[in-house]
Amino acid sequence: MAQNETQKPKKINGTPEMEPSANIPAMPLIVNAQYVKDISFENPSPLESLSENDEHAPEIELNIDIQAQPVSEHVYEVTLHLTAKAQKNNHLMFLAELQYAGVFTLASNLPQEAVHPILMIECPRLLFPYARSVLSTLTREGGFPALMLSPIDFLELYRNQYGSQENATQDS
Fold it and tell me: Where does the record place the region Disordered (predicted)?
């Protein structure tokens, strides 16, 4: 072959063939399903809330909780609990609660020490955009501007929650 010629990848039925050395690792998890598990929207005094012409935005308090439970071998249900509470001048405007869940199958060759971080970081990261959309639609349909949550760093949440426990265990 001449020096200025380039070798083109082989094609099988019009699709480039992968080189045998291109070992692509298997995905550590598969999303089997995702769904709204529970949803609630409370608008305790809609006439007051919707008639206020105050230009100040309400204070939004967001609480996040993540729970994982085994369904069968290597299969887990992970639930992302989001609670958004909006108040203005100590007056509750709305309370939105959402439990958005997914069923995940983890790779059977996954090291045991990797299971908990994947369930508490990666699975919620995959669920969050959908939960965010549901919560946004819920608040909009409740008569308020759509609540657009900022992205959440689940790795940082995990470090804050479980990193301090690991440090306490190591210190004893």
Answer: 1-21
Contact 142, 96 (CB under 8 A): yes
User: Distance between CA 97 and CA 90 in Å, rounded?
Assistant: 19
| Most distant CA pair in the chain, distance | 80
Contact 93, 143 (CB under 8 A): no
- Tokens 């019009």 sit on residue: 14
Beta bridge partners of 91: 88
- Model pTM greater than 0.85? no
pLDDT digits 0-9 by tens, 99-132: 999 999 999 888 999 999 999 999 999 999 999 9
Tell me the per-residue pLDDT of 40-64, one tens digit each, with 9 for 90 and over.
Answer: 999 998 777 666 666 677 899 999 9
What DSSP character marks residue 24?
A: P
Task: State the pLDDT at residue 28.
Answer: 83
Tell me whether strands 91-106 and 29-42 are parallel, antiparallel or unpaired. antiparallel
Inter-residue contact 98 to 85 (CB < 8 Å) = no
Report the C-alpha gap between 120 and 157 in whole angstroms: 9
